[in-house]
Amino acid sequence: MKIDYLYKDGEQKFLKILNKSKKSNILQDVVNLLYKMFEKYSWVGIYIVKDNNLILGPWKGRQATDHNKIPIGKGICGFAAKTGKTELINNVNTDKRYLACFISTKSEIVVPIKRNDIVIGEIDIDSDKKDGFNQKDSVFLESLAANRTFIKLIDDYEA
Q: What pLDDT band is residue 151 in, cutting at 50, 70 and 90?
C-alpha cells in the first residue's frame, strides 16, 4: 500500500508546513511539497479569486504558465471556480474547456478552496500522464483545501 502511505505522508507534511513555516512562505512551501512528493504532478499552482478572476499565486513546475489571470467560468480552472466542485480531467485533449498551458500536459485536477461555500481560490495540478489522477488524489487535495489554516492563508494572500 505504498500509494496510500504517500497520501498520508503528504497530509502529515502539509500540516507540519502549516505549523512551522514562516507565514510569507507557507503557500509556496505547500506547492513545493506537492510537486516534490508526487512524481506524477508535473505542475502545481494555487490560484486566488480576485475581481471575478483567478490570479496565479505560488506555483512550481518546469516552466511558468501564460495563464496568470483566468476569468471565472473560463477553462477547467474557471469552471471549477464557478461551480465550486473538483474537476478531474484524465485526458485534457478531450475536454473543450481546457486552456492549453503545456504541450506535455495530459491530465489535470482542479480543487476549489472555499470559505463558507464561497470559492476563494483553488489548487491546480497538471500531469504529463494520461489518467494521471484518481479518487485518492481528489480526496487528498480536497482535505488540504478544507483545512482552516490553509483557507485563512488563502484569504490573507495578496494576489
A: very high
